[in-house]
Amino acid sequence: MIDIAYKNIRLLLISISSGYIFYYMEFSERVNDTLDLLVKSNSSKAFGLYILINIGKFAALIFSILALIIFLKVIINKFFLQVGVS
Questions:
Q1: Is 84 domain-assigned?
Q2: Nearest 10 degrees: Cα torsion 18, 22, 27, 31
Q3: pLDDT in tens, 16-54
Q4: What pLDDT was estimated at residue 3?
Q5: Residue 84, by phi and psi: left (phi above 0), alpha (psi -120 to 50) or beta?
Q6: What is the distance in angstroms between the CA of the first residue and the CA of the last residue of the chain?
Q7: Position 86 in a domain
Q8: Most CB contacts within 10 A, which of 14, 20, 30, 59?
Q9: How many domains does the chain have?
Q10: Domain boundaries, position 22
């Protein structure tokens, strides 16, 4: 029983932390200034870095949403199993 609660808490912490990473990357002035600098640059490596940062940002968002959905699914299933409705 403790192992199941630990997995649920760990899943919730993963969801919160990846959501925070997305929030930081989306609204951070430092990250946005770096992206602006990369856009103004004519280097192909800068363009690759720009794409990598954006992919990482949206991967964190998707990972956060999926972890939250799985957490809610586990909690709802546990509730219905305790109530006796399946």
A1: no
A2: 100
A3: 999 999 999 999 999 999 999 999 998 989 999 999 999
A4: 63
A5: left
A6: 20
A7: no
A8: 14
A9: 1
A10: 2-79
- CA dist 34 and 17 (Å) reads 22
Instruction: Please check whether residue 85 lies inside any domain of the structure.
Output: no
Q: Which ranges constitute the DSSP H helices of 28-86?
A: 29-40, 44-83
For residues 41, 39, 36, 17, the Cα torsion angle rounded to the nearest 10 degrees is: -120
Q: Are 71 and 8 in contact (CB under 8 A)?
A: yes
Kind and range of the H or E element at 14?
Answer: helix 2-27
> Which of 80, 83, 64, 78 shows the shortest CA–CA distance to 12?
64
Instruction: Tell me the Cα Rg of the chain.
Output: 19
Under 8 Å between Cβ of 69 and 17: no
Whose structure tokens read 């930081």?
24
Flag whether 21 is in a domain.
yes
Q: What would the two tokens of residue 3 be?
A: 């192992």
